[in-house]
Amino acid sequence: MDMAADVQRCWIKKLFGFTVLKPADRYGHILCGWIAGHESEYMETLSEEEVAHAITQLIRRFTGNPSITPRGILRSQWFHDPWTCGSYSYPGKGCSAKDLDNMMEPLPSKEAQSEPLQVLFAGEATHSCYYSTVHGALLSGWREADRLISHYSSVSPSKLPNSKL
User: Fold this and answer.
1) Distance CA 115, CA 23 (A)
2) Beta bridge partners of 107
3) For residues 55 and 46, is the Cβ–Cβ distance under 8 A?
């Protein structure tokens, strides 16, 4: 059988699992699905409707509930992204938990005598448990947003930076 035809026919079978983002009261009811290889590249060429239909059928088949319908889907398109080309981070040999902690610290460091929070680091490479994953990128973005909210909630209004907009 032609490999391209097989990928087109069976791409959904390469979806190898779902992660449930918790807690639901913060993140809503979100399933994060995982797909890799040529099938993920092919999936990126499909319309949102085609992907949503295939995933809905898979969830209905898996749960045995024919009425389950996801409210929507959001998918990455890393393979076709010119900045990532499908790549992701991976901790190198000898990398420690402290190295990962250092990557998520804002600059300048807490010990520096300059303005705090000038540069923040988010992205899948900065999450200590979910590096190299989409949900690691999402969670790290929320982490840094929380850091900003906490910082600016404790700063007096006179010390807030002036907008140049």
Assistant:
1) 33
2) 119
3) no
CB atoms within 10 A of CB 127: 23
For the record, the structure tokens of 7 come out as 């990928």
Q: What is the mean pLDDT of residues 13-42?
A: 85
CA distance 159 to 80: 42
For the residues 120-147, what does the mean pLDDT come to? 88
State yes or no: pLDDT of 65 exceeds 90: yes
Asked whether 147 and 126 are in contact (CB, 8 A), the reply is: no
* Of residues 139, 110, 141, the one with CA closest to residue 27: 139
User: What DSSP letter does each residue of the chain carry, written as one string?
Assistant: --HHHHHHHHGGGG--EEEEES-HHHH-SEEEEE--HHHHHHHHHS-HHHHHHHHHHHHHHHH--TT---S------TTT-TTTTT----PPTT--HHHHHHHTS-BS-TTSSS-S-SB---SGGG-SSSTTSHHHHHHHHHHHHHHHHHHHHSS-GGGSPPP--
Phi then psi for residue 65, to 5 deg, are -105, 105
**pTM of whole model > 0.70?**
no
Mean pLDDT of the chain: 83
